[in-house]
Write a structure and sequence with these properties.
The protein has about 675 residues and is α/β, with parallel strands linked by helices. The protein contains 25 helices and 28 strands. Bound molecules: iron/sulfur cluster. It comes from Catellatospora bangladeshensis.
């Protein structure tokens, strides 16, 4: 059974939607939610919440929640008890390991689930199955942030807390639309700009923030590295840099200068369409501010050169000396999902153990082996896109998908579905019968964030408590309970009876989190990592004395601009950009089952009126969108928020299966897909 719902009618928890990490109070009576209110004591939201966190909770009590395990019998998924489902999962996983070895099994962890659940899942895969084939959806969103920020500063997290937005006298927002995707942070940026801070937006679309920005650089999709390098060159040419900081705390200036010789304002304009005077204005505004802050999103990372985008964006903060100073500023990625930072922190990565320790590092390995009491594989495992390729060529036989609807959210959906079909055995752990669950052999009914106990880590590295306000419906179990049960069915005890025990154990294997525990969070409130001991207050601002790089210096990156993986041509002349809308969240599995559906009942294709006129369709007309991989139809919405030659779609609705269009081209460093550029053609239906 699952833990009983608490008797208290008000439970403090953390929002399970985006990575802002708003503190919420869930008001319940008789086991039902009456309302959710934002917590005034929440350090990130301070009494605010958006239309998702505050109102979109009806999904938890939706009549179509999964309430019992399901097993495939022919074409049908049939309800069974837990014993039968767990026995089957264990038998099939063991069978694959016996016949093909441990690396024929892989797991995709969940950025929606708690840290403790992700910790347990990666431990099961490594310590029980014996493979590093474990990854999470940061692979398809912010893996370039982890790689780029680690290379630049030495740690895979944003450098400054949300509070520093209020210290900033200039905010540079690149490739992010926080007004819709991270509304509480979007509102804070807007307020800061309205109170006089400079605002620079680098985005191909005219987002809400772009419309009020002092400078909007609407560069062509795929031109980020050229723009960031162009800004760096202007800053150096005008002496708008912190020479003392560069001399004391940075490395790589000579190589950068050499690289920047190519990036004349005219060349940057040729690549990006950004006029030289706009580039100059943006560079001046950023570099002459006292406390300039950089906030960026998936428009920087989801490119074939996404890691280069992060590195060259970080260059600006290093040149300006606006990182690691304690005065604000910094370089901060807006994480998409509630716990995408935490899933990576917990080691749900194929090459890193908990706390970003390389799997082949003998000291980290020894620490885990000692605590876990077993030998561990040292060879890095498969990344998510590689899992699909491995399934198609027979190297991967069994896939466990935990709380991710990969059939809808991952790029080139036909490829993903073919990979799922090619696996001998697919387990899906979910709260609804998603497209991915429908393709599984066994479906295990999990719990929503409102029904579980643990922690999330938000976008600014803050561990916050998640507390159960409801019991999971029917036979559904918390994911923590499910993972532990599968381990027991495989003959292994994962050794963490409760989520609090799991976080304590994580602190023993990962020094970055050694000082964080449920009891401390309950007593003292949220804590930022690194937090290395019970009396360490945690570090809201990173790199104050020295950067965590091998030489202690911030590393400037000399990177060329390279064209994107996919370009428009005469057959596919438009560029499709994908992203999110205010009322919905990711695959829409949760928000479409709430009143938010009334606010935004279907997806639209955003297209510039001039393009619609040329092609002969109008507002509300149905339009076929076709890429080199697939086609869909959507209703046109005419708006100048997109430029001529560009269109926009979100991916919240399965009936507008946006990812049948997107390509499998990936960032060369991290395998993050190029969601932001797909060449398409349009045709009125
Ligand atoms: Fe939840 Fe994000 Fe909205 Fe805050 S901004 S309430 S974390 S969805």
């Amino acid at each position: 059974g699952h833990p009983p719902a608490p008797a208290a009618s008000q439970v403090g928890t953390t929002c399970g939607y985006c990575g802002v990490g708003c503190a919420l109070i869930v008001h319940t009576s008789s086991g039902c939610i009456d309302q959710i209110t934002p917590d005034r004591a929440g350090p990130v939201n301070r009494g605010h919440a958006c239309v998702k966190g505050r109102f979109a909770y009806a999904f938890a009590t939706s009549g179509d929640r999964l309430t019992t395990p399901l097993i495939r019998r022919g074409e049908r998924l049939e309800p069974v008890g837990w014993d039968e489902a767990l026995r089957l999962v264990a038998e099939r996983l063991k069978g694959v390991v016996d016949r093909h070895g441990p690396d024929a099994v892989a797991a995709i962890c969940s950025a929606r689930a708690t840290n403790e659940e992700n910790y347990l899942m990666q431990k099961l895969m490594r310590a029980v199955i014996g493979t590093n084939n474990v990854d999470n959806c940061s692979r398809i969103c912010h893996a370039p942030s982890a790689a780029g920020l680690t290379a630049a500063f030495g740690l895979a997290g944003g450098t400054n807390p949300a509070e520093d937005i209020e210290r900033a006298d200039c905010i540079l927002v690149a490739g992010a639309n926080p007004t819709e995707a991270h509304p509480v942070i979007g509102a804070r940026i807007l307020q800061q700009a309205l109170s006089g801070a400079g605002l620079i937006v680098i985005d191909p679309r005219r987002t809400t923030l772009a419309k009020i920005a002092n400078v909007h650089l609407a560069g062509a999709p795929g031109s980020n590295v050229a723009i960031f390098n162009g800004l760096a060159r202007v800053m150096l040419e005008h002496g708008w840099v912190d020479a003392d900081f560069l001399a004391r705390r940075a490395a790589g200036l000579d190589a950068l200068r050499e690289q920047l010789a190519w990036f004349t304002p005219q060349r940057v304009a040729d690549v990006s369409g950004v006029a030289p005077d706009a580039l100059l204005a943006a560079a001046r505004l950023y570099a002459t501010a006292m406390f300039p802050s950089i906030i960026y999103g998936l428009g920087v990372t989801e490119h074939t050169h996404g890691t280069d985008g992060v590195r060259t964006l970080a260059n600006l903060a290093i040149l300006r000396g606006a990182v690691g100073t304690g005065r604000g500023g910094g370089v901060n990625p807006l994480r998409g999902q509630n716990n995408v930072q935490g899933a990576s922190d917990m080691g749900a990565l194929p090459d890193q153990l908990p706390g970003y320790q390389p799997v082949a590092d003998p000291r980290a390995q020894a620490r885990c082996e000692q605590v876990w009491g077993c030998g561990l594989p040292a060879r890095p495992g498969l990344r998510i896109p590689d899992m699909f390729d491995a399934a198609l060529d027979g190297r991967l036989r069994a896939l466990w998908v935990f709380g991710e609807n990969i059939a809808q959210t991952d790029p080139d959906s036909s490829h993903v579905r073919a990979a799922l079909d090619a696996c001998e055995f697919v387990v899906c752990q979910e709260i609804f019968l998603t497209d991915t669950a429908l393709a599984a052999d066994v479906v295990l009914p999990g719990a929503s964030f409102l029904e579980k106990d643990g922690t999330f880590v938000n976008f600014d590295r803050r561990f916050q408590r998640v507390r159960s306000a409801l019991a999971p419906p029917g036979l559904a179990r918390t994911d923590f309970h499910i993972i532990a049960s599968v381990a027991l069915a495989l003959g292994a005890d994962l050794g963490c009876p409760t989520p609090a025990d799991a976080l304590d154990e994580c602190g023993r294997v990962a020094p970055l989190f050694a000082g964080i525990s449920h009891s401390r969070l309950d007593r003292d409130g949220p804590l930022h990592w690194p937090c290395r001991s019970p009396d360490d207050p945690g570090q809201a601002r990173l790199h104050l004395d020295s950067f965590a790089t091998p030489d202690g210096r911030a590393q400037l990156a000399a990177r060329p601009w390279l064209p994107p993986g996919e370009l428009p041509d005469s057959r596919y002349p438009f560029v499709l950009i994908t992203g999110r809308r205010l009322a919905h969240y990711n695959a829409g599995t949760m928000t479409r089952r709430t009143p938010n559906l009334l606010l935004s009942p279907h997806e639209t294709l955003d297209v510039h009126p001039a393009d619609a006129r040329t092609l002969g369709f109008g507002e509300g007309d149905r339009v076929e969108v076709r890429s080199r991989r697939g086609a869909l139809t959507a209703t046109a919405r005419l708006t100048t928020d997109v430029s001529v030659g560009q269109v926009f779609l979100a991916f919240h609705f399965p009936e507008v299966a946006t990812n049948v269009l997107t390509s499998a081209a990936v960032d060369e460093a991290t395998s993050c897909p190029e969601y932001k550029i797909t060449a398409v053609c349009l045709r009125p239906c």
